[in-house]
Every structure is written in C-alpha cells, then in structure tokens.
Amino acid sequence: MGFLAKNHVLAATDLVGVRGERLLFDKLNFSLSNGTVLYLQGANGTGKTTLLRTICGLSKPYEGNVNWCGDDIHELAEDYYKHLLYIGHLPGIKEDLTALENLQFSLALSGTPFDLTQATEVLHLLGLEKGLNLPTRMLSQGQKRRVALARLWLQDLPLWVLDEPFTALDANATDMLKQKIEAFANEGGIVVMTTHQEVGMRVPKFEQLRLGCIKNAQKNQPGFLMTENRPEAKPARALSTFSVLYRILARDIQVALRRQSDVAAVFFFFIIAASLFPLGSGADPKLLSAMAPSVLWVMALLSCMLSLSRMFSERLCRWNSGADDDFQSACCADCTDENTGALDTFGLAFGFCCAFDWSAV
Q: I need a labelling partner for 3 at 20 to 30 A (CA). Which of 122, 214, 297, 354 fits?
C-alpha cells in the first residue's frame, strides 16, 4: 500500500464532547500510530458516534482538538480528508444505483480511479455476484452493508473510521471483515471503530476506549486506553422568556442568511409595501404616525407568508440512499432552510417591527 513508507499519527488532545446540555466525554486524550486499532466501547448514547464524527471533522469538539501528523484536521481540511475513509452506521449508498455504480460514484468523489474489473472481483468476493446489476434498493440490509464495505478493498487510504461496521452482517461476512481489518492494521493502517460485538484482533496495537460511566473497570492493562467519564449532573436552569426568544431569533437569523435569495425576496416585498404606504394614506404626519406601527406589523406578517409553504412542507430529511454523514449534513442543512423558512423570516421581521415600534414611541 502507498502509505506504508509514511509514519502517520492520529492524536486527540483534551477532547470535550457535548450534545445538547449533556456532557458526553471530557478531556479525552489518545495517540494512534501505524498499525493501531482503536476499539470504542460504550452503551447507546454515550458519545461513540459523536467522537467518530469529531475525528472525521464532521463535528467540531466543544473543547480540544484532533491532529493528523501534528496538524489540526480543520486546518488541514482536504489534506486530511484525502487520507480518510469513513463508513457510517448507514450503508451510504444510492438505492437507485447498482452496486458497481455506487462504488464508481463513491470512488469518483474521493478521487480514486475506478477499475471495473477490480470492483467486480471485490463484489464477487463479498458474495454479491447475483446482485451486480440490480438497484441496491432490492438488496437486503446485509448486502447493502457489503456494498458499502467494498470500498475498504478498493481505496488505498491510511485511516479508516468505521461506525458499527459489523451491523447486519452474517457470520461469514463478519469473519471476512475482521480479517480485512487485521490485514490493514498489520500493513500499517490506523483503524478507529465502534461495535457492540466483542472483537479481538491480532494486530500490532489493539487499544480500547470505553465511554460512559464505568464500574469495576480494570485499569493499567497493557495497551488498554480507558477514560472513565462520570459527567456531573447539571442542575436544570430556567430560561427567561427573553432568553428563549433571543436564542430562537439568533438561530433563525443564522439559518435565514444561508438562503440569501429568500431573505432578499422578503425584504424586497417589505420595502416596496412600506414605500407605497405613505402614498396611499396621504402626507398627513399625524395620520402616518398613528397608523405606521400596526401597518408595519401587517406588512411584516405578509412578508413572512412568502415562506409559509416551505414551513408546512412535508419534505423531510429521508436517507433513502443511506447517504454518508457528510452528505447527510449538507442535506440536513438544506432541509433546515426549507422547513423553517417562515420562522427565519418571521424572526427578521419581528426584529425590524420592534425597531419601528420603539422608534415610533
């Protein structure tokens, strides 16, 4: 493999993971060199997927940083991602495409040349010879998982991050994948993986990191990384009405600004209506002053109605193709923009109307 001659190190320094109001892990530190398999353990909801997404650069840590060969992964950006192969807990395939087409698509996105003969051989090896030309929506969950895992045989990358790779696999496929991971690590690759199945691998360095509260943990075992996370319970904090409105408004403005065309339409409508109002009501200053607040409120609400169709849309984020998490993040952002458009514009109009009311007073 092309990365054998290089020394790669994946390191985490004082990582803190927070989801919502809950602390998932605190001050995590590890350093993984060539030939290391890091096995993440923990119950559901303890932060395993969050940690994997942080390692992949899909999520930023609350505190701390992840380094690749001494440099921060977010500063490296593409220079880091080109070394990474990430397979999430969803298959990450397009169900309208065949297995070969999915592999061709995935390899093209990563810049890896596609060899039809090699891809066909790998799919045969994984027991998919009968489904090569079928849309993957017709395959079982285990077969879809095999299509996703075929990338492990086709891409020459030094770092694998695998979220529940053994899910839906039968015993034969599980053994085959285990042997592939062992061979990859013995050739100098680095693997970070999580699974609820007990796995033991013959690799140069096999380390375990357990997330969540651990009772009767056996410490000081050779090659056994363990961080005992005992998050302190945070007392419930009551938020004032103003704080809630402020947070909602700040979120909606941030989301709205990502759809500049829609915001421009709302502002354009509002400005035109505000400009025509004096022409229709006459030039009497007292009349304008008396009617302005209520009229501006009505115009603001009418402006918000430009995006009501999106707010009540039934278009939800559905991973029909089981897209990878990086594609999911992009899609989720689009859906957030579409389904909360009315809230975004209402937040903007609300702020302007308050400003007009205060100035009138």
A: 122
Residue 30 has φ and ψ, to the nearest 5°, of: -160, 160
265-322 pLDDT tens trace: 767 777 777 777 666 666 667 776 777 777 777 777 666 666 554 444 433 333 333 3
Token look-up 């100098």 returns 188
Integer-rounded Cα radius of gyration of the chain: 26
CA distance 340 to 206: 46
Q: Which of 125, 123, 155 is nearest to 136 (CA)?
A: 123
Please state, as a whole number, how many other Cβ atoms lie within 10 Å of the Cβ of residue 355.
11
**Secondary structure of residue 317 in the 3-state scheme:** coil
**235 in helix, strand or coil?**
coil
Q: Determine the Cα–Cα distance for residues 157 and 135; give it in Å rounded to an integer.
A: 28
DSSP string, 275-316: HHHHHHH-S-HHHHHHHHHHHHHHHHHHHHGGGHHHHT----
CA distance 211 to 138: 37
Number of alpha carbons in the 13 Å side-chain half-sphere of residue 16: 11
Average pLDDT over residues 175-193: 94
| Overall pTM > 0.85 | no
